[in-house]
Design a protein that fits this description.
The complex is a heterodimer of chains A (about 220) and B (about 350).
Chain A (H helix, E strand, L loop, with lengths): L1 H19 L1 H22 L4 H20 L1 H4 L3 H10 L2 H30 L7 H27 L4 H27 L8 H27 L2
Chain B lengths: L1 H19 L5 E5 L3 E3 L3 E9 L10 E6 L5 E3 L2 E6 L2 E7 L9 E10 L1 H4 L1 E12 L36 H28 L2 H32 L8 H21 L4 H29 L20 H38 L1
Parallel strand pairs in B: 2-9
Antiparallel strand pairs in B: 1-3, 3-7, 4-5, 4-8, 6-7, 8-9
Helix pairs in contact in B: 1-7, 3-4, 3-6, 3-7, 4-5, 4-6, 4-7, 5-6
Classes of the chains: A mainly alpha (about 220), B alpha+beta (about 350).
Chain lengths: ~220, ~350
C-alpha cells in the first residue's frame, strides 16, 4: 500500500512539474503537429498503407523526444533526495505510468492531426484505441528504462536513440501489423495472438525493469 | 584443454567432410518443356556428377506423378558423362482427360550413379483422340547409388554445404549471448569486475559470429534467392539483434568509471537479451519467410536433412560453439590482464 501511495504522490509531482514547465509538453505537441504537417505537404496524397507506417514512425520519434527528458530534467541531487524518500520501484513505476499517459495523449493528438489533414482511415476504432493504449504502454516501458540508462551517460540523446531503436522493434512491428488490421488493410481473424504477444513483451520488459532499476540508480 | 582440442578436431572434420564429400549424381535440367501427345519428344538431359558414358545399364522413363503411369524411352545416346540425348515416341493417349499433365523424368544410371528423379520435367498436352491407353512401361529394379554423398537440390546445388557453416554460426551466437547475459547477472549479484569483463568478451564474439552469419547468409541468399538481401523476416531480426549488441558496446564505451560502466552495461545487456527473445524466437514464426521452417518451407525435419548431412551438421554446431567459447575465453583473459595492469599504475 505504501508503494501505491508513493506512486500516486510521485505521479502528482510529475504532473505538477509538467504543468509548471508548460514549454516541455507544448514543445512535444508542436513537434507532432509540425511533423504531421511536413509529412502531408511532402506526400500530398497518403493511402492507408502509408498512413499506417507514417503514424507509427511519427509516434516513435515523438515518444523518444517526450520520454528522453524523464530523468535528465532532474539534477542528481534532487534525484538523490527522491531516492531517500521513496523506493526505486515506486519511482520507476510512477515514471512509466506518467509516460504511458503522456504517450497516450501524444498518440491521440497524432491521430487527430493525421485524421484532420485527410479523412479518417481507421475502420475499427475500438481495436485502434486498444492498440494505441498497448503501444503507449510498450513504448513507455522500454523508453523510460532506456532513458534512465542514458541519463547516466554524458551524450544521453545519442545513446537514447542507439539503445532504444533495436529494443523497441519487436513492439513496433507487432503494432504496425495490428493497426493494419484496424485499418482493414489485412484481415486477420487471429489478431488476439498479436495482442497477447504485445502484452507478453510488455510484461517481460516491465518485470525486468522492476528487477533491474534498483541496480541502476545507486551511484 | 580437452574441449579446445575437441573443437579443433570437430571443426577440421566439418570442413574436410563438408567440403570434400561429393553431391549425389542427379539430373540438373533438360531442354524440353511442353509437348503434345502423338509426337516424338527429343531432349538433351544434363546431369550433375553423373557418369552416363560409363553406365552399365542406362534406362530412362517419363512417369506421371498422380497415377504412376510410365513411358519408356525409345532411344538413349550418352554424349558425355554429364549429357545425353533421349527420345520418346509419345503414344496418342497418356491421360483420360484432355489438357496438360506433368510428367517426371526418372533416370536409372546403373550401379555407379543409382537412380534420380526430376519432378515435373515435361508437361504433355493430351490432344482429343479415340485411341486407348497403352500399357504402362514398368519401372523396376532401380539401382541405388553406392558411397557417401550429399543430396542434390536443384536450387541449392553445391551451396547446400553452406548449411554446415551458416547455421552453426547462429547456434553458436545464441549460446555466446546466453553465456554473456548469465555473466551480466552474476556481475550484478557479486559486483566482481571479472564477470563484466567476461560478459563483454562473450557478447563481442557473439556479435562477430552474428556478422559472419549475416555475411554467409547473404552469399547463400544471392545464389538461391537471387539477392544478397531479400528483406526476409529472419534476415531483419538477425540484423536487429546485431544492432542491439552494437548499442551494448557503445554503452560500455561511453563510461569512464569502471564500476559504473560494468553496472550499467550489465543492466542493458539483460534488458536487451529479453528484447531479443521475441525478436529471434517469436516474430519469425508469425511471418512468412524464405528461410526453411517458415511458411511451408522445409526445415531440419526428417525429409530435408538426410542422415549424411546430419553426420556433418551436428559436429559442425558443436565445433562452432567450442571455437566461439575458446575465442571469448582468450579475449576476456587479455582484457582482464589489461584491466589489472591499469589498476596497478
Amino acid at each position: 500500500m505504501q508503494l501505491v501511495h508513493d506512486i500516486f504522490v510521485l505521479l502528482r509531482k510529475e504532473a505538477i512539474l509538467e504543468w509548471r514547465q508548460k514549454y516541455a509538453i507544448g514543445g512535444i505537441l508542436l513537434y507532432v503537429l509540425s511533423t504531421v504537417f511536413v509529412v502531408y505537404i511532402a506526400f500530398v496524397r497518403v493511402d492507408a498503407k502509408t498512413w499506417n507506417v507514417l503514424f507509427w514512425i511519427i509516434m516513435l520519434f515523438a515518444s523518444i523526444n517526450a520520454v528522453v527528458k524523464s530523468f535528465v530534467q532532474e539534477n542528481s541531487r534532487r534525484q538523490l533526495y527522491f531516492y531517500t524518500l521513496a523506493h526505486p520501484t515506486a519511482i520507476i513505476l510512477s515514471k512509466i505510468l506518467y509516460n504511458t499517459l503522456l504517450l497516450g495523449l501524444i498518440s491521440i493528438l497524432t491521430f487527430a492531426a493525421m485524421s484532420f489533414f485527410t479523412e479518417n482511415m481507421v475502420k475499427e476504432v475500438g481495436l485502434f484505441a486498444l492498440i494505441l493504449f498497448l503501444g503507449s504502454m510498450g513504448f513507455s516501458i522500454a523508453f523510460t528504462f532506456i532513458a534512465a540508462i542514458a541519463a547516466k551517460a554524458n551524450n544521453s540523446a545519442t545513446l537514447m536513440a542507439i539503445m532504444s531503436f533495436p529494443v523497441v522493434i519487436p513492439i513496433l512491428l507487432t503494432l504496425v501489423k495490428l493497426s493494419a488490421n484496424a485499418l482493414r488493410l489485412i484481415t486477420d481473424t487471429s489478431y488476439w495472438r498479436d495482442i497477447s504477444i504485445l502484452l507478453a513483451i510488455d510484461v517481460i520488459l516491465l518485470t525486468l525493469v522492476i528487477i533491474l532499476f534498483p541496480y541502476l540508480w545507486r551511484d | 584443454m580437452w574441449w579446445k582440442i575437441l573443437g579443433v578436431v570437430l571443426m577440421l572434420y566439418t570442413i574436410i567432410a563438408g567440403m570434400l564429400i561429393p553431391l549425389s549424381p542427379a539430373t540438373a535440367f533438360i531442354d524440353a518443356d511442353k509437348t503434345d501427345t502423338g509426337t516424338r519428344l527429343e531432349m538433351t538431359v544434363h546431369g550433375y556428377n553423373t557418369h552416363y558414358t560409363q553406365a552399365d545399364d542406362l534406362r530412362v522413363w517419363l512417369k506421371r506423378d498422380t497415377t504412376g503411369y510410365a513411358l519408356c524411352a525409345n532411344e538413349i545416346n550418352p554424349i558425355s558423362d554429364n549429357k545425353m540425348s533421349v527420345a520418346f515416341d509419345l503414344p496418342n493417349r497418356v491421360s483420360y482427360f484432355d489438357g496438360a499433365t506433368d510428367f517426371a523424368l526418372v533416370i536409372d544410371g546403373g550401379t555407379k550413379d543409382g537412380y534420380s528423379v526430376l519432378p515435373s520435367a515435361v508437361s504433355i498436352n493430351q490432344l482429343p483422340t479415340r485411341a486407348n491407353m497403352e500399357e504402362s512401361c514398368a519401372i523396376n529394379s532401380l539401382n541405388q547409388r553406392a558411397g557417401i554423398t550429399f543430396p542434390f537440390r536443384n536450387i541449392l546445388e553445391e551451396s547446400i554445404r553452406s548449411l554446415y557453416f551458416h547455421v552453426p554460426l547462429w547456434f553458436a551466437m545464441m549460446l555466446l549471448m546466453l553465456i554473456s547475459v548469465i555473466h551480466s547477472v552474476r556481475y550484478l549479484s557479486s559486483n566482481n569486475l571479472l564477470f563484466s569483463t567476461k560478459a563483454a568478451a562473450y557478447a563481442r564474439v557473439g556479435v562477430l559470429f552474428g556478422i559472419l552469419g549475416l555475411i554467409t547468409g547473404a552469399i547463400w541468399a544471392k545464389h538461391t534467392w537471387g539477392a544478397y538481401w531479400s528483406w526476409d523476416v529472419k534476415q531483419n531480426t538477425a540484423a536487429v539483434a546485431v544492432l542491439i549488441y552494437m548499442a551494448y558496446f557503445v554503452v560500455r564505451d561511453s563510461f569512464d568509471d569502471l564500476d559504473k560502466q560494468a553496472r550499467i552495461s550489465s543492466v542493458y545487456n539483460i534488458f536487451a537479451f529479453a528484447a531479443l527473445i521475441p525478436l529471434l524466437f517469436v516474430l519469425p514464426r508469425m511471418a512468412d519467410s524464405l528461410h526453411p521452417g517458415n511458411g511451408g518451407n522445409p526445415a531440419l525435419g526428417s525429409n530435408d536433412l538426410d542422415n549424411t548431412m546430419r553426420m556433418v551438421f551436428y559436429p559442425g554446431v558443436i565445433a562452432m560453439m567450442l571455437i566461439g567459447a575458446w575465442i571469448a575465453n582468450l579475449l576476456w583473459r587479455i582484457n582482464w590482464l589489461r584491466l589489472k595492469r591499469l589498476s596497478n599504475f
